[in-house]
Structures are given as structure tokens and as C-alpha cells.
Amino acid sequence: MHDIGSFAMWDSYRRKRNHLLIGLMSGTSLDGVDAALVSIKSDTSGTLMEVSLTDYVCVPYSDELRKIVLDLCSLEHSRIDLLVKAHFGISEWYAYTVKRLLKSARLNRKDVDAICMHGQTIWHAPDVQLFPGPETDFEVRSTLQIGEISVVRERTGIPVIGNFRSRDMAAGGEGAPLAPYLDALLFGSPDEGRIVQNIGGIGNATVIPAGYNRERISAFDTGPGNMVIDAIVRAETNGSQQYDPEGSIAAAGQINQELLDIFMADPYFIRKPPKSTGREVYGADFAAHFLGEANQRSLSFADTVATATALTSESIVRAMEDFVLPETTIAKVLACGGGSSNKTLMSLIRQRLPQGISLGTTAEIGIPDDAREAIAFAVLGHESLMGHPSNLPTVTGAARSVILGSMSL
Fold first, then answer.
1. What angle do CA 311, 313, 316 make, to 5 degrees?
2. Is the same domain home to 338 and 392?
3. Which of 83, 138, 250, 351 could bond 309 through an S-S bridge, CB–CB 3.0 to 4.6 Å?
């Protein structure tokens, strides 16, 4: 792997005005691998001018792979031998998905400039922890996305850039969220303030004031997206269902306000941005605690899922009320990610939004809900290859803007 910024061989890339890249994303919802073929145009100075989606495919995870990743995210079940095996094995999934995308687009590998790969997050620890040093303890922020970029490079014959989060964390940031860099380009409006609300395994909001001045953009993780809902459905159906299709289970239940209030007291919800979170906070242990409290109250399966769905909707809207609306006028919320297909969740968010704020989806303005993050990493990879920083310190809390990623040539 190599640092991106120092290679003279990328001068030819930087001289080009038209680029074609593949963005790969597999998120905390563990649905599968999203691959986006993205066309990017730059002006003569190398400034990004236009981003368009050319093709998109998704390869769903198998139940076996999903269980492997879930076990790796658990302190009780994770094993170092399985982690190393999965680090290489999941790369075969990424390479397979790239080949599927090339076949769908009727292209060959020589048509693509680079693959830009996020990897599968296993553990994200953005809070400072102490680590023993030679004289005094070091202050460490850490994250781990598995997926060996060299495997994808070898299988596809296309240069691969990955490991996007680490450089931002080294610069003092939380390493996430990174997609807001794209959100400003695609979803900003000169006339109205907007929030792009991704609802994957984790929920995250990008706040784009009217005029979309990049320096005024903010973003943060709002808390659980689909993660707790999915875990409860898996547990209560013994794995026969992985999620609540269109929110149909929740729609048949009643929200238990007492249970909702208990979990809305979670300290993450009142912590001010910048902030990020993940499965290490809202994963198996959190879901088990939620189920235990629901069982103590003799809640039905439907009531439990309804209350977990309300936890997601309430945490999203309350984050807007607490951290966004006091400073920024918002006219529209654009939802994306798997949660935007959950009709019950979307209805709950719509009911709770303050008057004058509408709720739609990114799909309504031409960006498929599940493709946004894959497109984002194609754009981030492009900017790195151009030698441009692409983290947003106002979003991640980093001390400075930096060029993201490492590469297998």
C-alpha cells in the first residue's frame, strides 16, 4: 500500500478531464456490497465539476457471511484467525461485485481508472484511549475496516484505493462521516437548507445550509438506523428474517413509551457533534438489552419492533431539533439508505418533523437510495488521486484537511 499524494505516475490521471471510477461500499446494515460506476468530470485546473452515476449493482451478503461479520463485531465471539481470514475473504466478494458491475456496464477493466473501496467496518473507536508508550501513554483513536485492497487489485487488474478513514483519524478527527463531501455536491440548494439523512445500520445526517458553502456543512451520526430493528427481528425469528420488510412488523404493533424513554436516555444522543458511532455501541449487546427490557414488560414481537423503530425515528428528529435547527434553517430532509424503504419508519419521522420541513428521498432527485455511499467513495478516491484533501474538518473534528486513502497499484 502506498500514500496517494506522492506518486508522479498519477500525473496522467490528473491531466485527464474525464474519469471513470468504481465506488464500493458495504455498510453496517450488512445487506451486501454496493458498487457504483461513476463518471467524473474536472476542469483544466483539476477542480471537480460533474458527478454522474453510470451503472450500479448490489450483491447481497449470504447468511453465512453476515454471521461471520456479526461475530467479528462482537467482543464475545470475535477471533483473530477468523478476522484475518475474513479480511482476505471479503475482498473476494468485492472483486466479484466489480466483475458483475463491469459485465452489467459492458466494459472491461481497462476502461476504469480505479476502484475506491471503503471496506467492511468491524470496529470504530473514535474516542481517545490511552495506549502505552516508551515514555508516556499515547492518545489513540482507532478504526478497522476489513478487506485487503491487494486482493481486489490482483483479481480485477484495476488499481485500488482504500483505507479512507485512517488519515482523518490520524489528523485528530473521528474518521466519519465522510460521505458529506459528496452530499454538498449532489444535494445542496442555492435557495433552501437541506439535511441528507442516511439510514443504514447507523443513522447519519449531513446538514447543507442554503448556498451549500462547504465550510458551513456539518454532519454527524444520529445513532442507530436499522441496526437495532434488524437485530431484534433476527433474534425473534431465529434468523429466518433479517429485517422488517417495509416496516410491516412495526406497523402491526404499538410503541411502548416507557421503553422508548429509557433508551432515549442513552448518553450518545445528548453528546454534541462532531460525533460518530457504530456497531460496537448499538450492536448485539444493545439489542439484547432492549429485548430484555421489552420482555420484562411482556411486549409482543410487533410492539418491540415498533418501539425499536420509534427509537430510530425519535433519535433522528431529536438530533435535528437539538443540534441543527437552532443554527440552520432547514426546508427539506432527503432520506437514503435501507431505512428509507421502511414505510413505518418514514411515517414516524414525517410525523415528528417540525412544521415547514418536508421529507423525501435522494431517489426522488435521481440518486438511488442504496448507491449514495458507493458514489461518495468513488468521489473521495478521485479527489485523493487528484491530490486534493477531501475530509471536512468541520464534520469529523480533524485538525486539518488531509488527502485520504492508501493504494495498491
1. 105
2. no
3. 250
